Amino acid sequence: MDKFSGQKRAGAMLYPPIDPFDQRMLDVGDGHQIYVEQCGNPKGAPVVVLHGGPGGGCSPAMRRYFDPEVWRVILFDQRGCGRSRPHASTENNTTWHLVADIERIRAALDIDRWAVFGGSWGATLALVYAETHPEAAAFLALRGVFLATQRELDWFYGGGASQFWPDQWARFSKLVPEAERGDMIAAYNRRLFSGDVKQETRYARAWAAWENSLASVESDGNPGETPADYARAFARLENHYFVNKGFLEADGQILRDLHKIDHVPGVIVQGRYDMICPPKSAHDLASGWRSGRLHMVRAAGHALSEPGISFELVRVMRLVGQNRGTYGL
Length: 329
Fold this sequence. Notes:
Layout: H1 10-13, E1 22-29, E2 32-40, E3 45-50, E4 71-76, H2 95-108, E5 114-119, H3 121-132, E6 137-143, H4 150-157, H5 166-173, H6 184-192, H7 197-213, H8 228-243, H9 253-256, E7 266-271, H10 280-288, E8 292-297, H11 307-322
Parallel strand pairs: 3-4, 3-5, 5-6, 6-7, 7-8
Antiparallel strand pairs: 1-2, 2-4
Helix pairs in contact: 2-3, 5-7, 6-8, 7-8
């Protein structure tokens, strides 16, 4: 029997849990050390997994989207989050630092070309990385596309998503004086970087709760309280990147530079009812990317753990693994 399961529960669709065969801290300079792990087949087709956020960190569940007999799976915590150090630090922490870190990992592990797997902010980073190093990207698997545009930030922090989740938006916005609510990202930035850890943690938890409430189509709007350390890293890093517009040189840069990856094959897996990263971005990406294909998942939201999303991602990576020679993996 194939190890892949077509059952409708997300966990049943994944491969069994596995442990890493390699774990290390990689000094990437600038005062940062990042956590890197490898699991699966040491001689398998390499794939690097880019987590979301920024600031989300990688998790053991992310290992389970790949057949461990076929894939050599590389996960890492981006600067400032997870097991990387210093924790919650935004110093020397930009998109371009992360792109350079990915290349450092590839060189350290002696990998020529690899598949790149990322969702949400991880999809943003995957696209920027591939457009910067198209020779290294053999295949892109993207989920819940975020293009780091002002339109997307306005949707989520400027009132668009609040039309669907007014109760959660009220909780998120009430912590900010009414006079500052015209720019919620800036208002939260002042509090997330106030220097008062207690205040930073309070606002970090509110920032994380707003996003977590909207992640799944099955959400009841009550995600529970996020652990303080995780919330502070997640919120500070995400806000830092959003205040700086993803550190891109122009709004719409990713779509502008798609011609650089026209030859790189890939698949976009997008939830039809994604409230965090609405499907327009995935559609725009697919429309301009000659080698990219869009899979719109019915009755799914944003989260990696959505059953329909998990089903498609496992299916895609199984097919790529079966045809890895075609992709030069």
